[in-house]
Amino acid sequence: MWVVGLVGSPRKGMNTDTLVSQALSGARAQGAEVEKIYLSDLSIRPCQGCGKRPPGGYCMFRDGMEEIYRVLEGADALVIGTPAYYGTVSAQLKLMIDRCNCLSEMVPQADGRMTFRTRIAKRKRALFIWVADSSRDPACALQVMRLWGKDANVELVDTLIVTGADRGTPARKRPELLQRAYELGAKLVAGLQG
Ligand SMILES: Cc1cc2nc3c(=O)[nH]c(=O)nc-3n(C[C@H](O)[C@H](O)[C@H](O)COP(=O)(O)O)c2cc1C
Predict the structure, then answer these.
(1) Helix (H) or strand (E) segment spanning residue 29
(2) Residue 9 alpha carbon to ligand 1 centre in Å
(3) Residue whose CA is at the smallest distance from ligand 1 atom 2
(4) Which residue has its alpha carbon closest to ligand 1 atom 22?
(5) Which of 38, 111, 143, 162 is least surrounded by Cβ atoms within 10 Å, i.e. has the fewest?
(6) Strands 124-131 vs 154-162: parallel, antiparallel or unpaired
(7) pTM of the prediction?
């Protein structure tokens, strides 16, 4: 089992990174091979909405998304963490999400209407971690993630919603929160084992 953590915060070692690491530790304890990717380290160009799909590829651009497409095709599960930025996900994560628009294609239904279908064969389970300071409502972020999940063939099976991350106690000093992230990571893999 291959579990990949995607960190949407540019701040290494801070709240989001800490909780993604904890979840990955839980997954590793269940026997998974884990990997962590900092989206900030990847050079990802913003989607241009060109609608052009090169043969054998998902996007006209060749950049840091190649690594993400590899993950989306091969991983068994994902741990996706993002800080709340203006009530939703970080720009780092949103860049990645927008570049998944061409992962789906239009196909006709039996009644003639058109529908979208993902081109990513592998279904993946995901834990979504949203780390806010004063915001309390993750609805906007969750809507973005669920829409993306359809194109990327990702099912959000669990969410960890964190508040008071900056002005309150940081994640690394909240043992119950660390434990919860660890357990959710373990559960992600246990779900794969049936
Ligand atoms: C550009 C920006 C926008 C932010 N917007 C929000 C917000 O809408 N709601 C909120 O609770 N916190 C907001 N924050 C605070 C972060 O979500 C919070 O500090 C979080 O802990 C950062 O995660 P990190 O420690 O993993 O980087 C914002 C921070 C930045 C830099």
Answers:
(1) helix 15-29
(2) 9
(3) 85
(4) 83
(5) 111
(6) parallel
(7) 0.96
> If you ran DSSP here, which 8-state letter would residue 56 be given?
T
Counting ligand 1 atoms within 8 A of each CB, the residue from 92, 133, 162 with the most, and so the one to mutate, is 133
DSSP 8-state assignment for residue 88: B
Tokens 């949407």 found at: 8
Tokens of 67: 């690594």
Ligand 1 atom with minimal separation from the 7 CA = 26
Ligand 1 centre distance from Cα of residue 40 (Å)? 15
* 153 Cα to the center of ligand 1, angstroms: 27
Successive 10-residue mean pLDDT values, the chain, 194 residues: 98 98 98 98 97 87 97 98 98 98 92 92 98 95 98 98 89 96 97 76
Q: Could you tell me the residue ranges of all domains in the chain?
A: 2-192
